[in-house]
Design brief:
The complex is a heterodimer. Chain A is mainly beta. Chain A has no helices and eleven strands. Chain A has strands at 4-7, 10-13, 18-25, 31-37, 44-50, 53-57, 64-70, 73-79, 87-94, 105-106, 110-114. In chain A, the strands form two sheets. In chain A, strands 2, 4, 5, 6, 9, 10 and 11 form a seven-stranded mixed beta sheet that branches. A four-stranded antiparallel beta sheet of chain A has the order 1-3-8-7, with no helix packed on it. By secondary structure, chain B is an all-beta fold. Chain B is 0% helix and 56% strand. Chain B has strands spanning 4-7, 10-14, 19-25, 32-38, 44-51, 56-59, 62-67, 72-77, 86-93, 101-102, 106-111. In chain B, the strands form two sheets. In chain B, strands 2, 4, 5, 9, 10 and 11 form a six-stranded mixed beta sheet that branches. Chain B is globular, with a radius of gyration of 13 Å. Classes of the chains: A mainly beta, B mainly beta. At the A-B interface, strand 5, strand 9 and strand 10 of A face strand 5, strand 9 and strand 10 of B.
């Protein structure tokens, strides 16, 4: 039980499909994040939401669209993806955006394959 | 631009051995550094967080040190066990936020 739950765990989609990844945190945190982890590359921060407001968009292509309806839920809407977008997408949460003394908690990730 | 490097990329050791994982970063003006563990196909678990004013942190058999001036951190694992097998990631932030820059990790295998 990590406190951060991601669904689905595995997703295969065609380049013309529209799908969504869901993340839910049960820790009472205020900040939530999407990270991308590709093979042989470092983890990349994609988006940050603090108190439901987007505070960071790390030059992510518009085919990735985040949504944060409340502090407990975070979505990543996917459309017209490319094969190079295949990766492990990790959601995380923390008490605040300030990392001082706070631990960040990660979900187990959603494996995305674009065919 | 901050870059984080972890050496070695992979490591195999027999059970019971003490080992050191290395992390280096190019910009010494960091706010804090964290070590994470990632099991295959899973998310990350935070192991140790070192603030820029600290030189080391300990948790059980783990000890992490930080030398900001030289841009280095080490993670020391004492008396390694097969359950320690995982990928270990180092990450730094220069802004006091969770905008971490990650290394590519060291994949550790402890042989029984």
């Amino acid at each position: 039980e990590t406190g951060v739950t991601q669904t689905p765990r595995h997703l295969v989609m065609g380049m013309t499909n529209k799908k969504s990844l869901k993340c839910e945190q049960h820790l009472g945190h205020n900040a939530m994040y999407w990270y991308k982890q590709s093979a042989k590359k470092p983890l990349e921060l994609m988006f940050v939401y603090n108190f439901k407001e987007q505070t960071e968009n790390n030059s992510v292509p518009s085919r990735f669209s985040p949504e944060c309806p409340n502090s407990s839920h975070l979505f990543l809407h996917l459309h017209t993806l490319q094969p190079e977008d295949s990766a492990l997408y990790l959601c995380a949460s923390s008490q605040g955006w300030d990392s001082s003394g706070n631990t960040i908690y990660f979900g187990e990730g959603s494996w995305l394959t674009v065919v | 631009k901050q870059e984080v490097t972890q050496i070695p990329a992979a490591l195999s050791v027999p059970e019971g051995e003490n080992l050191v994982l290395n992390c280096s970063f190019t910009d010494s003006a960091i706010y804090n550094l964290q070590w994470f563990r990632q099991d295959p196909g899973k998310g990350l678990t935070s192991l140790l967080l070192i603030q820029s004013s600290q030189r080391e942190q300990t948790s059980g058999r783990l000890n992490a040190s930080l030398d900001k001036s030289s841009g280095r951190s080490t993670l020391y694992i004492a008396a390694s066990q097969p359950g320690d097998s995982a990928t270990y990631l180092c990450a730094v932030t220069t802004s006091g936020t969770y905008k971490y820059i990650f290394g590519t990790g060291t994949r550790l295998k402890v042989l029984a």
